[in-house]
Amino acid sequence: IDLDTARQELEEFIPHVKNISDSSIKKMAGRDLMRFKEFKKQGIAVKFGRFTQKENKQIQKNVEEFLSLSGIDSAEKLLFTSRYPEDKDTIHRLKTEHHFCEKISEGIPRPWRLIYYRARKMFDPNNYKGRYTKEEKEKLKKYQALHGNDWKKISELMSRSNLSVAMKFSEIKSAINYGPWTKEETQKLMNAVEEVMRRRLKTENPDSPLSLEQSNTDPWIDREKLDQPLPWTEIETKVGSRYWRQCKQKWNSILTSKLTRGQQLYKGINGLQAKINLIKRLYETKAEDAYEVNWDELSNAVGDVPRAYVQSKFYKLKVSCVPLWKRKTFSEIIDYLYEKKLPELEEKF
């Protein structure tokens, strides 16, 4: 199909398709469009965001089955072919013959490109090489000075993943302070996030009357979600004294505090009822992973409170009530709370 038709048909599944380049649209028309239509027939929506445990297992299964089918002897050779120049032609031929694109994305309602990137992250042995030595940190600084932010090139020289070298350099270049946040640092962080959020609101709602003069009422804070992505490297630069991960953690802490402040948090008998409702509702979702839970909807289980409060309640429940919870899957934790803890709570009630 022609480019305009492809873009129009893809728009049904990908709302931001207008921002995608023509070359990417052509690839998606070949790799994704028919898959998306098949998923639609099955009543399955195209997904974005974090991959669930179920999807990760499906990717692992797809990769293992393709290796068995094609005879390629390792996932690294399949997904990082450029590391094996002597086998490159053979691997490309086998991938074409055995329909690599179709096989790798089987059963996963996401764009092929995202599935491929996820598979590369899962199967890259360079992702799991432990802490950086002093020598590696010095090499990383030297390579970045030579090659700029060409993380692909630097990752090859360092034998570390692209993501690993980019994140580590972000930590190294920042004037890292591991102590408590000062009032000045916290204010810089708040100002940086506010600036980003106001820019985003203006882009999304150009006719909105929201203005910087209204900052005292914090109208922007309620529009933010704990899991909404923010440009953390930009925010890191504005803060100046902390690296991006510290900024993100601090912001989540501030956001949780702001969203819960002023709420009538349930105590005593009401708190007991809230826990009972929360466990029951979580069990009813049949979710296999925390990312499958609609926390906004679930907040109704404990009353008019934000999702951050519900997530905090769940965290406290699993930590205090579920033995060895770190070794259990999300669904196993829910089952334990439902089968063991719920009867105790209902007895007290």
Automatic annotation (TrEMBL):
Residues 124-161 form the HTH myb-type domain. One of its GO terms (molecular function) is chromatin binding. InterPro entries: Homeodomain-like_sf, Myb_dom, SANT/Myb, TTF1-like. This is TTF1 factor. It comes from Tichodroma muraria. It comes from the Eukaryota. The lineage of its organism: Eukaryota, Metazoa, Chordata, Craniata, Vertebrata. Residues 124-172, 173-255 form the Myb-like domain. SUPFAM superfamilies: Homeodomain-like. Pfam families: Myb_DNA-bind_6 (PF13921). GO terms for cellular component: nucleolus. GO terms for biological process: termination of RNA polymerase I transcription.
